[in-house]
Design goal:
This protein has 181 residues and is an alpha+beta fold. 15% of the residues lie in helices and 37% in strands.
Length: 181
Amino acid sequence: MPSGMSLANRAARAVMVLGIATGITAKETAPKRQAFTFRDWKVGDPLISGDPRLKQCVGITKGTACVFSDKQFAGEDVIQIGAAFSGKGLFAVEVRFGSNRADQIEAVLRARYGVPCATKTGEATNALGMKFPYRTSSWCFSDGKAIFRSIGAKLSEGDFEFASRDAALIGSDGKLPRPDF
């Protein structure tokens, strides 16, 4: 890279090269959205005992995660809905659904969040060599990124995840790392 390039320009070029190397097939023109919200929670909202939004929680793990009993998302029945919290409040959401619901869920997400900031298509192969098409759509928010996958960890399941910008920094102990300077 040219030595006269600013750090911001070098970072932008590195992100562009990374996007090409990871196979992102379409970069759509999409505005950066305002803050992400989920079931009336905003990123950073704390998990507080007695909060009426928790009445659908069937499992709260050490005050850091909520698994919802209401398994409706985007008007569709889903497998699981969960939210994760740290000392800084809500930082991640995960929804798992049957891959047969992917088209309907993606349509609702596009209607709600608009044009994705990136999309990708490809094929997944099972143990028998059968190929299955998949789609990934990402929405960029001011406080993080949401990703829809028509096929997730299992061929029979898709997923939708949101991670705040702070989520990438949270360690296995659930704490933000201390700066080393």
